[in-house]
Amino acid sequence: MTSSSDDFLDSAENDQMGHGEKVGSITDDLSGFVNDQLDLARNGNKLGADGLTYPVAFVHVTFDSKTGNAVGGMLVTDNTGIPLEFLITSAVRPTRAQQILYGKRLKSYISINLCGKQLLNDIKTKPKVIFVHEDLMLGIHAHTSIPVLMLQSTEQLGTVTTHPMVIPPKNKPEYADVIDLTSLDADMVDAFDRIEKCREVLASRNDDYKI
After folding, report:
1. Residues 180 and 128: beta-carbon distance below 8 Å
2. Per-10-residue mean pLDDT for the chain, 211 residues long?
3. Contact (CB, 8 A) for 55 and 77
4. How many CB atoms lie within 10 A of CB 209?
5. Exposed, middle or buried by CB within 10 Å (0-12, 13-18, 19+), for 48?
6. What contacts 63, CB < 8 A, 6 or more positions away?
7. Start-end of H helices in 59-211
8. What pTM did the predictor assign?
9. Are 179 and 163 in contact (CB under 8 A)?
10. What phi and psi values does residue 152 have, to the nearest 5 degrees?
11. What is the pLDDT of residue 185?
């Protein structure tokens, strides 16, 4: 008895390699705090140029290169870093056969097509911009109309400024101009660390979040 390649690969999404689980918003009671700012028409101005707060999302995927296991997390904050919502997927655990079949594409497939898409689908607080921690994750722009940018600290770039730097997808260079970087807190890059540390806490209590 044989299984078709389509059935086998589809099982990755239906079984071991799918289904994100939402932990939920950690600050639902603050959602009304920025409602006026969230719906404000910006008339073509860069985000933050008017001095008002706005929501941004950070997407981080923890990936084990040896096993292919991964957990994705999304933290939505305002542009000063105050949390608005947090989501996390359950662990994606590909079989050895799936690791072989996906090959070098395994990390991008799991990170973008499984973890990234699931987080985007489940989010309640729609951000104005999505920040990612590595170049590979810029690929989630294909699954959303929200601008996606890679966020880097000034230390990573070896420059001395009071705000982080952004890198847009290669085919979306215009995304770099959607935001006034001076409106971002200088330490916004720590959001990725916050996601990972939260995952570690959850993993200590629930194996669903262990990689």
Report:
1. no
2. 37 44 36 33 51 86 95 92 93 94 95 95 92 95 94 61 77 85 78 95 94 90
3. yes
4. 22
5. buried
6. 69, 70, 107, 110, 111, 211
7. 96-102, 106-108, 117-122, 154-157, 190-203
8. 0.76
9. no
10. -130, 145
11. 75
